[in-house]
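B., you asked whether I could sanity-check this one before it goes into the benchmark set. Here's the sequence:
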Amino acid sequence: MFFERHGGGERAILVHLDGQDPEAREDPQEFRELALSAGADIVAFINVPRHRPTAKYLVGSGKVEELRDLVHAEKTDIVIFNHVLTPSQERNLERVFECRVLDRTGLILDIFAQRARTHEGKLQVELAQLEHMSTRLVRGWTHLERQGGGIGLRGPGETQLETDRRLLRVRLRQIKSRLEKVRSQRDQARRGRSRADIPTVSIVGYTNAGKSTLFNAVTNSDVYAADQLFATLDPTLRRLELDDLGPIVLADTVGFIRHLPHKLVEAFRATLEESSNSDLLLHVIDAHEPDRMEQIEQVMAVLGEIGAQDLPILEVYNKLDLLEGVEPQIQRDPDGKPQRVWVSAHDGRGLDLLKQAIAELLGNDLFVGTLCLSQRFARLRAQFFQLGAVQSEEHDDEGQSLLAVRLPRVEFNRLVSREGLQPLEFIEQHTLQ
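And here's what the prediction gave me:
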């Protein structure tokens, strides 16, 4: 990557600002988990009651001196703030502490840098890092006022800072160009699935809600899943066969978090578009989390940013194994449609109900009837059996097959069209009344 990530195990002091506007306030426990996920060795957690952040240091000068003494006493490598710092605040704090200073956005970017596995994921993380760091190039550097004038590398009279900014702009253009190709490839794949009438279901939710565990349990996959924030970064797609519906594509996506940095939403737009172009969203919720209502609001806010807030959503309350007296169930709206499913991805309880709910929501337009097929439709008959759409079969006196079938209408239309027939005419001519 353009910016190398520092190794894990660094001694870190965490600084949490309390008493702010409730809309801007962060969760201290979530902050601690983020730091641990990044590999920090936490030596101190400082709560700072601050109602009015200062422009120079964010916190008061007295607290800055207190933190400086603690940094030197603990031989700290890095100080992390649970807040967004301006570039000037970051530089000012680093001069005082004489160590690296990181804000909440930088911390999340570091975790993403560790989790990225695919080429696309690494590109997206690097894009977000570069855009975040572009305003922070001047920090801690002592040679910026020196005129470079290097032959072949930088223009005459150009300072080192100007050179680095120019190189950064070039790299940004390269990454955006590559990601545009990725987006084009994803669009092409989605159009292919659309032509095949295969619906796409995306799993979304707050980070560490159990999305990947649920994905593995439903699809019998081995996607990396762990009890940590942002265990999944790169999207994974699997084909899944559902009763009464047929094949669907299930997508596991990156988790959301409160105040997800806008740069990350922009950088991961190609990935998140997988969710915004889905036929159904499975919103996985940690049923054991006391603050789950706030987490639900944060997920809906991010869905709004990517234009997916109006898609059909099925709420999946996960981690039922951690609750007492709650059984797997489907909760329905006044129209009888599945609205919420209670499951445990850990022990598998309720997964059959989840599949049933997905099939109901996606397969509300089913073809159910008895077809009278002659021998010339033997291939069509075989395809109905292959899809598991045949409920029963009998034969009349003329040897024709009487098939009782049940399958999504789009799948029925696709099979009939393959035979060069018009679906409506075929139904009129071959359905027993």
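One thing to flag: Residues 118-196 form one domain. Otherwise nothing jumped out at me.
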